[in-house]
């Protein structure tokens, strides 16, 4: 049936599933159950009832709860997520992979599946993932108990939490949530551009307003029919309180969702056996990935070079340019994640093709590590419908810590094995400023972020600064219980302000200095 190698991998099955608390047939599905629902639909989408028996490998994304030691719901969980999904599907693949955490993992799982198939190690791979954090939270709020715990004593390749992109210095100084980390990066980026805070927030709203519009028409959105103007996204108010500087609530990923997605990747020989029409076969044409240092160790905190480098490498591997891409989906947990990527490759924020297919993590929904699985499904769906020849998914993990890009196409060609070693070497070769773990003396603020209470009041601050005497970089936080400094920073321009810093028991604290000092 096909002119290409029988081991060439093709995507033939896709599905998404969303369960909202107010749905008529709401079932309060567990993370395993909601993932299995998308997986079941993806198998059905392959067009043959025998595909389930052909699956020799399953790969699943890691849930939030299995990624972060500090996050644990009282409902219990599976100790072998991939095999729990298999039980519900009544399939027995020889291999099961429980992916490492990170929003880049869906794209990397597709790459691994394609490489396994091209090398003859697999012939049919099911990739899936999902979250039920909305249900988990609702059960707690209602005082209800459920038992989602499962023990499955079967083989699994458990890749682990994989949060080594966070440094001890960052954690010790209060950087424990994504908004705080991204706030540091966002404010550093603003400082580099010398843009006033009010103008920067307006720009963030303008960047994300089109995402909101796309999400409002997406039937799989966590909140379809709801959209916001740029002003509504940027203006702080009762329903848009500050979370971490510079982000109000509507500009950050929404993780309280019940969403799942799945893909089926098979060899061309298997697709031929299943009689999958050629127009329903989608190919991974080019890909690349790279990872960064910890945020405070990067040469420029306001930039993650890996994004632009991997995008260009994936395009080059696919032998296309940005102009050839019809569909984009850029990971959009925070505005800086999108801006960092598109500016690196010269793509305008108002590009007529749009920057998202789903509507983005704050509006479509941010189902943890699995978000980009939804983006890949969207790309495959549009390519199948003949709406274009090339689509690109750019997936981000951590705090602009890991970037993975895939270029997808209807064009049937033999698989092109891509090597990201050169990209990673270029990232690693970037020089960073000397870091001082025990700073003493005077310095200036390089970047900063603030945390807020539920009433919208600044309660603490973390800064990254430079010592005046050596220009060494340091990290410091406000003294415990001292809200006054954070409150002052919330009402002025902190970038470049003079500070004094001291070290106490391996933690650094800063005070603002008067101009006369």
- CATH classification, class level of the largest domain: Alpha Beta
**Distance from first to last alpha carbon:** 80 Å
Kindly provide the radius of gyration, computed on alpha-carbon positions and rounded to a whole number of angstroms.
23 Å
Helix content: 25-40%
In the CATH hierarchy, what is the superfamily of the largest domain? Thiolase/Chalcone synthase
Any low-confidence stretches, pLDDT <50, length ≥5?
Answer: none
**Total domain modules:** 2
User: Whole-number average pLDDT?
Assistant: 95
Strand content: 15-25%
- What is the tally of beta strands? 17
> How does the major sheet shape up?
6 strands, mixed
CATH arch. level architecture of the largest domain: 3-Layer(aba) Sandwich
Polypeptide structure, described:
This protein is α+β, with helices and mostly antiparallel strands and 517 residues long. The protein folds into 2 domains: 9-165 and 254-428, Peroxisomal Thiolase, Chain A, domain 1 (3-Layer(aba) Sandwich); 441-512, OB fold (Dihydrolipoamide Acetyltransferase, E2P) (Beta Barrel). The chain contains 15 helices and 17 strands. The longest helix has 20 residues, at 197-216. The chain is globular and about 75 Å long. The model has no long low-confidence stretch (mean pLDDT 95).
């Amino acid at each position: 049936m096909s002119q290409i190698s029988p081991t060439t991998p093709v995507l033939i099955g896709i599905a998404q599933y969303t369960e909202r608390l107010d749905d008529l047939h709401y079932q309060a599905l567990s993370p395993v159950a909601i993932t299995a629902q998308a997986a079941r639909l993806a198998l059905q989408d392959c067009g043959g009832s025998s595909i389930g028996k052909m699956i020799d490998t399953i790969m699943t994304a890691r849930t939030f709860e299995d990624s972060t030691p500090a996050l644990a719901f009282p409902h219990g969980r599976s100790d072998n997520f991939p095999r729990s999904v298999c039980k519900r599907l009544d399939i027995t693949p020889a291999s099961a992979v429980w992916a490492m955490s990170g929003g880049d993992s869906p794209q990397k799982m597709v790459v691994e599946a394609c490489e396994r198939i091209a090398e003859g190690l697999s012939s049919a791979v099911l990739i899936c993932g999902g979250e039920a954090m909305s249900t988990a939270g609702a059960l707690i709020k209602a005082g209800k108990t459920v038992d989602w715990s499962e023990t499955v004593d079967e083989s699994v390749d458990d890749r682990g939490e994989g949060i080594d992109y966070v440094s001890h210095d960052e954690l010790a100084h209060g950087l424990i949530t994504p908004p705080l980390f991204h706030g540091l990066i966002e404010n550093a980026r603003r400082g580099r551009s010398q843009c006033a805070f009010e103008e920067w927030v307006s720009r963030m709203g303008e960047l994300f307003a089109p995402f909101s519009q796309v999400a409002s028409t997406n039937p799989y959105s966590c909140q379809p029919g709801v959209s916001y103007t740029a002003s509504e996204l940027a203006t702080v108010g009762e329903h848009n309180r500050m979370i971490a500087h510079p982000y109000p609530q509507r500009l950050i990923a929404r993780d309280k969702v019940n969403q799942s997605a799945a893909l089926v990747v098979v060899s061309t020989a298997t697709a031929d056996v299943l009689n999958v029409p050629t127009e329903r076969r989608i190919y991974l044409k080019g890909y690349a990935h790279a990872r960064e240092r910890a945020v405070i160790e990067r040469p420029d905190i306001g930039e993650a070079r890996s994004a632009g480098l991997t995008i260009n490498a994936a395009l080059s591997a696919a032998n296309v340019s940005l102009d050839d891409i019809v569909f984009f989906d850029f990971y959009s947990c925070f505005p800086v994640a999108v801006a960092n990527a598109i500016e690196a490759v010269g793509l305008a924020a108002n590009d007529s093709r749009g920057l998202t297919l789903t509507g983005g993590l704050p509006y479509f929904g941010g189902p943890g590590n699995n978000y980009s699985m939804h983006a890949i499904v969207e790309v495959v769906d549009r390519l199948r419908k003949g709406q274009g020849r090339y689509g690109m998914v750019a997936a981000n993990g951590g705090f602009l810590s890991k970037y993975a890009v895939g270029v997808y196409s209807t064009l049937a060609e033999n698989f092109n094995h891509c090597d990201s070693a050169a990209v990673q070497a270029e990232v690693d070769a970037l020089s960073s400023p000397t870091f001082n773990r025990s700073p003493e003396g005077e310095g200036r603020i390089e970047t900063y972020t603030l945390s807020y209470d539920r009433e919208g009041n600044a309660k603490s601050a973390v800064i990254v600064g430079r010592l005046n005497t050596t220009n060494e970089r340091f990290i410091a936080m406000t003294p415990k219980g001292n809200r006054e400094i954070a409150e002052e920073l919330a009402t002025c321009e902190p970038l470049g302000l003079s500070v004094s810093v001291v070290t106490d028991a391996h933690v650094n604290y800063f005070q603002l200095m008067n101009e006369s000092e």
